[in-house]
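Weekly modeling sync, notes
Attendees: S.R. (lead), two postdocs, one rotation student

Agenda item 3: backlog of single-chain predictions. S.R. asked that every request posted to the team notebook include the full sequence so nobody has to chase files. The rotation student volunteered to paste the first one in as an example of the format we agreed on. Action items at the bottom.

Example entry:
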Amino acid sequence: MTGLEVLFVALAVLAGAAGLLAVSSPRVVHCALWLVVCLGALAGVYLVLGAEVVALVQLLVYVGAVVVLVIFALMLTRAPIEPSARLDGSLGQRLAAGAAGVAVTGVLAGTLIYAVGDTKVAVRTEQGAARPIGEAVFSGWLLPFELLSVLLLAALVAAIAVSRKEPGKEPGKVESGEETG
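Predicted structure, as returned to the notebook:
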């Protein structure tokens, strides 16, 4: 194994572990921070594969914008930071989710092994260059890219609207006087 292959495997394992922690951490803020680690490791994988532009876009768009937007929305909505027993699933739900994850992983691995086998894939660095990616983004993918930006803007506006307190009401209280979170 070469040094790049070892680095690729290490970054892939880090991305997988951080992804698991992002979906299993009991605190929402920790989930967002593990998502940053996962997406950063994926950017490293792109760098190892020779797709520098894709790695840069990964860092700028996902780590720099989407995760920051999620953390900003969490702060604006005053989401509870500590774990909540009423939001956790039962043991049966957790086992079912774990079994579904293992099954999907098995199907995906089996499909990839059947389709690719032990053939080697040549890395073509020209596919990760700036010109083909720019032509793809600003031709066929321009409308979905702009729709995504409008969706993120709508999420931010909705977070601000939800976080505003009404006059005469104490934040965190519902009409019956019970605490919400």
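Discussion: group reviewed the output briefly. The chain has a mean pLDDT of 80.
Action items: rotation student to repeat for the remaining queue; S.R. to check formatting next week.
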